[in-house]
Amino acid sequence: DLLGRAGQLVNAENFINRIPVEPDAVVWMTLLGACGIHSNLQQGEHVAEHVLELDPQNAAAYVVLSNIYTAAGRWDDAA
Questions:
Q1: What is the pLDDT of residues 3-17, one digit of tens each?
Q2: What is the pTM of this model?
Q3: What does the buried/exposed string (b/e) look like for 28-64 if buried means 16 or more CB atoms within 10 Å of the residue's CB?
Q4: What angle do CA 22, 27, 28 make, to 5 degrees?
Q5: Least enclosed by CB within 10 Å: which of 36, 37, 39, 47?
Q6: In a 10 Å sphere around its CB, with 0-12 CB exposed, 13-18 middle and 19+ buried, how is residue 4 labelled?
Q7: What is the pLDDT of residues 21-77, one digit of tens each?
Q8: Using 50, 70 and 90 to split pLDDT, how confident is the model at 1?
Q9: Residue 78, CA distances (Å) to 61, 65, 69, 74 in order
């Protein structure tokens, strides 16, 4: 969470990938939220795949991803 809030999104994802336990949807959702805060579309799409793979019914992931698309001006993808 701290790395994501600081804008260190790549470092945050690297950390998640190195932890000794399998990250769950909550861990990935935290990083997706940071991608939204920092409007990082490319990484946000990648992280959303992890969230939705683990929890396909996670409505918040769709909302955050839609907000990222909107911020990037990709209105068709946001719908």
A1: 999 999 999 999 999
A2: 0.92
A3: bbbbbbbbbebebbebbeebbebbbebbeebeebeeb
A4: 95
A5: 39
A6: buried
A7: 999 999 999 999 999 999 999 999 999 999 999 999 999 999 999 999 999 999 998
A8: confident
A9: 12, 8, 5, 6
First to last CA, the chain: 28
Count, in order, helices (H) and strands (E) of the chain.
6, 0
Helix axes 9-18, 25-37, angle to 10 degrees: 170
| Predicted pLDDT of residue 26 | 97
